[in-house]
Amino acid sequence: MTRRFISTQPVEVGETAHLIELLYDDGAHDGTLICAGHGGAVEPGTAELALEVAMDTDDASCWATLGYEGDGSAFDRFHPPSKAIDPPKYPLLGEIAERGFEHVLSIHGLADDEVLVGGGANTARKEAVVDRLDEALSVPVRVATDGQYTGTHPENFVNWLAESDGGIQLELGPTARSAQATELRRALGAFVRSAE
Predict the structure, then answer these.
(1) Mean pLDDT score of the chain, rounded to an integer?
(2) What is the pLDDT of residue 113?
(3) Are 168 and 104 in contact (CB under 8 A)?
(4) How far apart are CA 48 and CA 39, in angstroms?
(5) DSSP 8-state secondary structure symbol assigned to residue 155
(6) In CATH, 4-195 is 3.40.50.970
(7) What is the spatial distance between Cα 143 and Cα 93, in angstroms, rounded to a whole number?
(8) pLDDT, tens digit, for every residue of 13-44?
(9) Half-sphere exposure of 177 (CA within 13 A, CB side)
């Protein structure tokens, strides 16, 4: 597969703020998509991780946004709920919205120092991710079973981008996104390759 960057596209630009989206894709691939809908200064490290995993994998595409605000309020300005991320506001997302990816992995940041695995995928698939990451990381890794991090809502972009309405949503605490980012990237890459 020959993948390419479709030019990053500004979504919102202000005096001290900007939100851009990027797409790493070949225009037709429908195997694995790795997302980071709250990258940049919103949930630091997530977009970089998503892109690195996609680039290290032979058959994966990546869609991400990167939000920055000069006064430090990027999270407040550019963090819509995952079920509010949709193609009308994100043109590059619109280019892949109808493709029906076999596997979708969405990477998010979390304040607590742990990793939560959610999304609409079946429990066995989420537990397989937990097992893979638990071996690689020193922080607790568990399936999100209740609350805002379950990621199971059908309007959550990780679910409607997946052909079977069942993506994986990863909520990554600070250690997983910084001190152990290399270990996490390797483990996610191995997981993605095993799913292809």
Answers:
(1) 92
(2) 98
(3) yes
(4) 8
(5) T
(6) no
(7) 27
(8) 888 899 999 999 988 889 999 999 999 999 99
(9) 26
Task: For residue range 68-126, list pLDDT tens digits in order.
Answer: 998 989 999 999 999 999 999 999 999 999 999 999 999 999 999 999 999 999 999 99
Q: What pLDDT, in 10s, does the model give residues 142-196?
A: 999 998 899 999 999 999 999 987 899 999 999 999 999 999 999 999 988 887 6
Global confidence as pTM: 0.93
Quick one: 72 exposed, middle or buried, by C-beta within 10 A (0-12, 13-18, 19+)? exposed
**117 and 186 Cβ atoms separated by less than 8 Å:** no
Task: For residue 19, give both structure tokens.
Answer: 């939100």
Measured at the CA of 188, the angle between CA 187 and CA 190, to 5 degrees, comes to 65
- In whole angstroms, what is the distance from residue 30 CA to residue 103 CA? 8
Region of 130 please: left (phi>0), alpha (psi -120 to 50) or beta: alpha
Inter-residue contact 61 to 34 (CB < 8 Å): yes
d(CA 163, CA 78): 27
Opening angle at CA 97, ends 18 and 50, nearest 5: 55
- Please check whether residue 48 is in contact with residue 20, taking contact to mean a CB–CB distance below 8 angstroms: no
